[in-house]
Amino acid sequence: EERFPVTSHFVLTILVGDSGVGKTSLLVQFDQGKFIPGSFSATVGIGFTNKVVTVDNVKVKLQIWDTAGQERFRSVTHAYYRDAQALLLLYDITNKSSFDNIRAWLTEIHEYAQQDVVIMLLGNKADMASERVIRRDEGEKLAREHSVPFMETSAKTGVNVELAFTAVAK
Ligand code: GDP
Ligand code: MG
């Protein structure tokens, strides 16, 4: 008789958003529990990371793909979108254009991703309070307009990082 979670789900997840918003850093924080300061290469991603989370006694294996390079041209390959079951869409709370570009990202996502893809909007770099240009309620409003959940995260301090990925798995 099984006493431990046996049901396994596999969720293909991709990180999208403008270059520099902290996609790679967020994944490193989630995977390794640490923050490596300084920019990661804009063109060489770390590929993907597998991570198992347990939600409601069910094991969920997240395979998380980090997009790199392509985001500068806002043309993440369509195959990338087509297979994704979940998308973490990031902007940087200290960078207005990364926030303004969210609408364009969503347009592209709706064009190419599966209809039932799970989308979560994340305002990253929440630790940089003194340089904030996008208020939390602006993020909440945008998320509401597009009927997607929203959180502010920090890849640096780790705040809400685990929660964001677990919410996606759930
Ligand atoms: P990507 O291009 O979206 O993958 O962004 P990176 O992960 O390479 O991060 C871009 C820059 O922002 C780097 O200098 C990171 O150290 C920094 N960064 C990323 N996330 C955070 C964060 O949550 N807080 C702070 N203070 N810096 C961050
Ligand atoms: Mg990156």
From TrEMBL:
This is small monomeric GTPase. Its cofactor is Mg(2+). The gene is RAB37. Keywords: GTP-binding, Hydrolase, Lipoprotein, Magnesium, Metal-binding, Nucleotide-binding, Prenylation, Protein transport, Transport. It is an enzyme of class 3 (hydrolase). InterPro entries: P-loop_NTPase, Small_GTP-bd, Small_GTPase. Pfam families: Ras. CDD domains: Rab26.
